[in-house]
Amino acid sequence: MLINTTWLNEYIEPKISAGDIIDILPKIGLEIESTHILKNDLADIRIGFIRKKNAILAAPAMFACEVEVAKGRRVPIVCASEHEIEIGWGVPVALAGTRLPHGRTITAGQFHGVESQGMICLDGELGFLATGTGLQVFKDEATLGQSLTSLITIEDCLLDLNVLPNRPDCLGHIGVAREVAAATGRTLRYPETKSAITAGKQIIAVDIQAPDLCPRYSCQLIRNVKVGPSPAWLKSRLLAIGCKPINNIVDITNYVMYEWGQPLHAFDYAKLQGDKIVVRRMKPDEKLELLSGKTIDGTASGLVIADAVKPVALAGIMGGRPTATESWSTDVLLEAANFEPVNIRKSVKAIDLGLETRGTASSYRFERGTDPNSILNRARERAADLICELAGGSREGGVSDSYPKKLEPRVFKLTSDGLSGYLGVAVDAKTIKTSLERLEMKCSDDLTVEVPTWRVDVNDPVVLIEDVARQLGFDSIVARPNPGVATIGIRSPLDKVRQLVTQNLVAGGFLESRNPPLESADAKAVFGNKPPASIVRLSNPSNREMSVVRCSLFGGLLRSMERNIRRGTTTARLFEIDRIFWLDGNPPAPKDRWMVAGVVGGMVQDMNWRGGAAKLDFFDLKGVVENVLDGVSAKERRFEPVEMAHFVPGTVAAIKVGGQHIGCIGEFAPGIVDTGKMQVRLFGFELDLQALVPGFLEVRASKPPARMPAVTRDLAIVVAEDVPFESIEQDIRGAAGAGLESLRLVDVYHGSQIPKNHKSLAMAFVFREHSQTLTAEAITAILEGVMKSLKEKFAATLRA
Amino acid sequence: MLRSLGKLPEDQRPAFGQAVNQAKNRVQTALDERKQHLQATTKSKPREWIDVTLPGIRREIGRRHPLMQTMEELKTILQGMGFRYDDYPEIETEYNNFDALNTPSWHPSRDMHDSFYSEQGHVMRTHTSAFQVHAMKQASSPPIRAMTAGRCYRRDEIDDTHFPIFHQLDAIAIDRTICFADLKHTLYQMLTAFLGPGIQLRFRPSYFPFTTPSAEVDVFYRGRWMELLGSGMMRPEVLRNGGIDPAEWRGFAFGMGIDRITMAKFNVTDIRLLYENEAAFLTQF
Which of A341, A373, A402 finishes a domain? Predict the structure, then answer.
């Protein structure tokens, strides 16, 4: 919401400088989104002299002017006749490309076929309040081309406030002024109301048929108004805060809304049938043309204001076009009402209002909550006064009002100790009382607080504590340690496993990645083994590329790998630890599981001066996985051949730990990512991280290092190609018994020296007994036993 | 040999002792000579020359992602301050993400969160604050200090500074004597540990439906004020939703974005770099 500081100052006594306002607002919770110090922001506005002025036939309300903006430089400017202009006048000109404080940038363009390269600016269009006729006019030719700010003093600042949803009472200048006055110890001064509420006959019968949706409806009939343009001071105020002036009646309702925060509406009384206002739900067969031009029907059964016959306004949101105040209207019915916020909000969401924005300035305030009591009354009377004053009307009869259930102010009890304890700073009762009274709360000496009903946010005493704290200033609450009970900072077992696995992979050369969990719905791109029905899909994705929640980490890693390869990275090792998601149960509920996955491609090591480089393959990655599993003490692990989509057949292994399937490893099918000309073989693994937690938590007993000497023997055997090493190793361990401490495969050979379809496996055996030294004879006997077994089971032979 | 001295007749003892000592000294001298000789020969080994300026043979090591470095560092700091770490759901119920945090469905502050929903009506958590009620219910009773960190989602259009997925860290502390001054203290401690001594913080009153008073905290970092986190005293409604009696216990809560401070710390100007995982980028951290 835009605030003009000069306007704001009208309600504050003594006045406060714009600089101080800018300084104080953030400190009391009114965040300034953007600050426009006009004397700086208007530097590009220069005085141009009107040299020619021609009527535009197609647009009687516009003139084609030629304006001299600098000595000898004339530009064409089309000017709307918001204000009279004459040849020879010097006026503020914004040339095309200039940005006005509201954010509007002037562009060159054609109006009704006439070229325009700038704009003649009214005071309000420049953001400041009119002091005279609303247009700065200079007769002295010496001012040609001079900056406006060098000729007149502009103290106004425009502030775009981000009024947070809890404080609708600050959606008007007076609400903001109240906060500023309170925080700076100044007096809040309401605008003078010339008349007390008129007593008199209620001419209009108000019938609220939905009191839960409309707690109060009041209206005042004003007769014999003369509808016309508003005076310069009023126009400039609306223009300054970005609201377009329409006519004096509409402008007054808008002005009072921006002053008090209470939306108002004015009907052309002549268009209303029967002296009756009914607040009710719209009927399905009814239609209502709104001010926006959009015609709504009753299917959404929105709350409407109706006369005796038909709906005339969408309650609290927008008036109807047929009953709007027009230039020929003479009698107006001024409405000041209160509507239930949730219903307004729902209606704005449900009904297409034909606007570019969501809702209106009116609905924005009603959906946050307005005051049905004093502010409603004051706003209505203020607007009625102004209508009488500026449009020459007079009230007829008294206020017609229906307010079936008066909203009573809330009362809370505070204590000095309670408040001091909550904030952690000593605040005495007197300070509390003064702080709250400055916000127009009634506060007794024993701190019983009656809260004005415009403060819709105060539903608990803690809000009053906050009010006091805001006035003290958060800076005055000094940080101090808590004297309470110590608690234990501990990480979840999963977090510990995550850290260990991360350290392990980082040490192994892997770069940690973060990929978006939202992925394409394209079936080709979906990894993981979840059935399509169990994939979590977004009901409101921003785009198809980010519309399903991933059920495997591979997709993101592969896309990152693709990006790396395309940008010329020849070797990359990427990993990610994160959750995967799927649906399970009836009704389907989201489940998640923490996974770790890695994708590699390229070389084992960069080429260096001591040697060449080998290409990464399955076994490099398998070694990484084995290290990861070792790092978290995963026991009984196995790699079993398996077939999986997206992988080269025959290169994939399921990873099992303790018999449980926890992941996979393999080589991705060529073309899984589009790497252009670069062909890089890609390998990947994915493991269920959570499955590793129980094993990690088991207490592991250590053994002292063996003291007996070890004996090493080498053995090379020849077996058929398709005998898995795992079977051979198991057999050897079985045959060798406990004396075999370790078995290491040191060479795998295929070639001319051995029969076709066979391989030679060279292994290093380490034997050790813990109680005695093994004799050479004993070891030879063991190895003979091993060979015998291998021969029987796998037809293995010793390699000569 | 000297131990057998006692078995000899007394008159023979001096001579025997002397002889033994002489023998011992001769052996020692011989040993020392040999040792010296050996050391001398070693020293005289011909001089070698290696080019110590040749590049070392390096094995590639990986890096942690900058976002995760930030997160890990903050977790470690808070762990040291007594906060326990756990993970909580990322696909949440509307209740935990909003309602339990005093943000019912009609509340205008829901406009501040443009959320993603699953087809089943679950919400992709819009903030890690969704953990608060889980954490309170999980703990047996106060005092509680708990934290979590992770991904959050909002329907932002992607540009230099916005991405629909981002990271947050959230913490709560509940005890009988928790107060706003503690909150300030905790944040000063945490951020001093994270950003270094002498930091300047600015506490601005703000609004979150689940805290009152609420404060936005800005830090003066690298020559400018930057919004860092949201914080406040937990609302009584929220404590009640977590099964904790607000008449007896009070709490504070804060939530901090990880992406922005990481970008500021490492001078990253485009948030998309954090999610593209280019080796040339990641190897710098």
Answer: A402
Tell me the pairing of strands A511-512 and A572-584.
parallel
- Residues A117 and A66 placed together within one structural domain of the fold: yes
A263, A365 contact by CB (below 8 A): yes
Residues B20 and B112 occupy one common structural domain: no
A564 with A592: CB under 8 angstroms?
no
CA max distance for chain B: 115
Enumerate residues 509 to 528 of chain A having a beta carbon within 8 A of any beta carbon in chain B. 509-518
Note whether A48 and A169 are same-domain residues. no
Please tell me the predicted confidence (pLDDT) of residue A771.
77
Residue A703 within any structural domain of the chain:
no
Question: For the residues B60-86, what does the mean pLDDT come to?
Answer: 96
Question: Which of A32, A503, A512 to mutate: most B Cβ within 10 Å?
Answer: A512
- A593 and A547, same domain (yes or no): yes
Q: Is the minimum CB–CB distance between A231 and chain B shorter than 8 Å? A: no
A668 & A689 share domain: yes
CA distance B94 to chain A (A): 13
Q: Which residues pair with A288 in a beta bridge?
A: A296
Whether A226 contacts A392, CB under 8 Å: yes
| pLDDT per residue as tens digits for the range A281-305 | 999 999 999 999 999 998 888 899 9
Same domain, B125 and B219: yes
Residues of B in contact with A494 (CB under 8 A): 87
Give the dihedral sign, CA B16/B18/B20/B23.
negative
Query: Which chain B residues are Cβ-neighbours of A490 within 8 angstroms?
Result: 79, 84-85
Tell me how many domains chain A contains. Answer: 6
Among chain B residues, the shortest Cα distance to A490 is held by B84
Q: By residue range, what is the domain housing residue A279?
A: 205-402
- Does residue B51 fall inside a structural domain? no
Q: Where in the sequence is the domain holding B209, given as residue range(s)?
A: 66-282
Distance of residue B1 Cα from the nearest chain A Cα, in angstroms: 33
Residues A263 and A369 in one domain: yes
Phi, psi of A763 (to 5 degrees): -130, 145
pTM of the predicted model as reported, rounded to 2 decimal places: 0.89
Kindly state whether residues A255 and A394 are assigned to the same domain. yes
Residue A524 sits in the same domain as residue A625: yes
B173 φ/ψ angles, rounded to the nearest 5 degrees: -135, 130
How many domains is chain B partitioned into structurally? 2
Rounded to whole angstroms, the Cα distance separating A592 from A476 reads 45
Taking 80 as the threshold, does the pLDDT of residue A311 lie above it? yes
Which residues in B lie closer than 8 A to residue A546 (C-beta atoms)?
164
Tell me which chain B residue has its CA closest to the CA of residue A168.
B108
Residue with structure tokens 């605040």? Answer: A427
At A197, the pLDDT band (50, 70, 90 cuts) reads: low
Structure tokens at A192: 């003078």
Reported ipTM: 0.90
CA of A559 vs chain B CAs: smallest distance (Å): 9
Contact status, residue A447 vs residue B140, Cβ threshold 8 Å: no
A498: contact with B, CB 8 A cutoff: no
DSSP helix/strand/coil, A700: coil
CB contact under 8 A, A165 and B182: no
Q: What is the mean pLDDT of residues A553-569?
A: 92
What angle (nearest 5°) sits at the alpha carbon of residue B38, between those of residues B36 and B39?
A: 65
- Are the C-beta atoms of B112 and B74 separated by less than 8 Å? no
Identify the domain boundary among A697, A722, A740.
A697
CB contact under 8 A, B282 and A512: yes
B28 with B97, same domain: the answer is no
pLDDT per residue as tens digits for the range A251-285 = 999 999 999 999 999 999 999 999 999 999 999 99
CATH number at residue A758: 3.30.70.380
Q: Do A515 and B277 touch (CB under 8 A)?
A: yes
Instruction: Assess A359–B contact: CB distance below 8 Å, yes or no.
Output: no
Is residue A167 less than 8 Å (CB to CB) from chain B? yes
